[in-house]
TrEMBL record:
The protein's name in its UniProt record: LysM domain-containing protein
The keyword Nucleotide-binding belongs to this UniProt entry's keyword annotation: no
Organism of derivation: Zingiber officinale
Matches recorded under SUPFAM superfamilies: LysM domain
Domain (LysM): residue spans on this chain: 30-74
GO function terms (MF aspect): chitin binding
Keywords on record: Chitin-binding, Virulence
Alphabetical list of InterPro entries matching this protein: LysM (IPR018392), LysM1-like (IPR052210), LysM_dom_sf (IPR036779)
């Protein structure tokens, strides 16, 4: 898997068994810099996102290890 991050979104290329590439484009319009005590759940609630919406625009976030200063996408398309 190859991931290229950009400020306004990221592009992820995923190799599948057939050796074709599957292209996923996510566009990020706003981000939140995590502060002490932030959790995925708390940030999602703060910005009126469902669990599914938050996970769709933050697919590579490990919610057990959110760190101070980590950029969390809070508005975008998946």
């Amino acid at each position: 898997m190859v991931t290229a991050d950009r400020r306004r979104g990221f592009l992820r290329l995923v190799a599948v068994k057939s050796h074709r590439l599957h292209l996923q484009l996510r566009i990020c319009d706003n981000v939140h810099g995590a502060v002490e005590g932030d959790t995925c759940f708390a940030v999602a609630q703060e910005f009126n996102l469902t669990h599914a919406q938050f996970n769709a625009i933050n697919p590579n976030i490990n919610c057990n290890k959110v760190f101070i200063g980590q950029w969390l996408y809070i508005k975008g398309t998946a």
